[in-house]
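As the next step, I needed to go through one protein, both as residues and as discrete backbone shape codes, included below for the reader:
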Amino acid sequence: MSGKMTMRAPLYGLATAFALSTWISAAPALAAEPGPDTLPIHVISIQTPDADDQAEALTKALRQAVRSMPGWSLGDGDYSLEVLALSLKCVEPPDASCQSRIADQIRADRYVWGILSKGKASNVTGELNFWVRGKGTSKVPINYSANLTEAEDESLKKIAVDSVNRLTGGPPKGEVKVKAGNVAGQVFLDGQPLGALTAGEGTFFVPSGSHQIVVKAPGYSDVAASINVKPNQPTDVVVSPSTAPDSTPMNWKRIGGFASIGAGVAFAAVGVYGSASVASLNNDGKSAYNTIREGYPGDINVCDVAAREAEYKPRPMSDAEAKTVGDTCSAGDTGQLLQIIFYPLAGIAAGAGVYLLATSGTAGPENKTGFIVRPRFDKTGAKLDFGFRF
């Protein structure tokens, strides 16, 4: 029986009889028997002087809320706070001493009890309490519409769940031991930071239920594990993080910069070869070419004379001399052509290489403070612009 009484007559003998009848004929719990993986909570029928329907509905809703939460189970028995208080001669509402005696009487380590009454504006008001052995009582006020008289009403179910969460702090926590070799990483629970590992190990307290653990560490790939936390026994999580592959993207600017500078050096070498060839031809005083050239005035182009494109009558050039001079002039033209082509190419390549190296550190060089090196091309040739960005 629920033990609801509208009379508080001093008939303690009758009340005691009711209490004994309640204990003997207690209705079986609707939930499964509490097991090693859960902690039982007893929900004592809410006491009320004038809101019987609302109190009965709230009691059922609270029991359903406890039964549905991971880590908790509904304790056995259908006890009435009013009958228990009368039988144990408790003050109203029960004080700390009486609450302890109630716990001993119903053999509970934790239980919910409360008092509800009709308030103003068609509401019911009261207070719910959660007693825990060795910790005392926590409490939350309640105030809701008196129209909620069915335990299956979604609004009342929400009130019950919220109240149980506020009273208990949510599902009971279980110990989780994480081992990840010697990795000094961070542990995440369901996407939220949980704590750090020391020498690859860490112990954390996690709400009961199913969760996902993820270990993150620099230089290692993330490793995840699914766990089912139980309040009465530790949960061991052993993972083996593997070294993460090098994900650094290829710096093509830097590679291209060094390649361009290398090409510039090669182009410059060809140009230097051309310069050396021309200088050797011009400065070799003992060569046949210079001997022939000395026989002509300085304003006469002996290359044109050898090619028969010009004539110097005071000293005509023989066919043998023309061949010697022509071969030398041809070699000199080749050297000059090498200078004309490869020196500019060397400058362009080197400038492009310097520019690529200078901008290889960021994807957006326009936003970086530092020296600027840019190649520029126009009708007059290739140039390098230097500057500094602030």
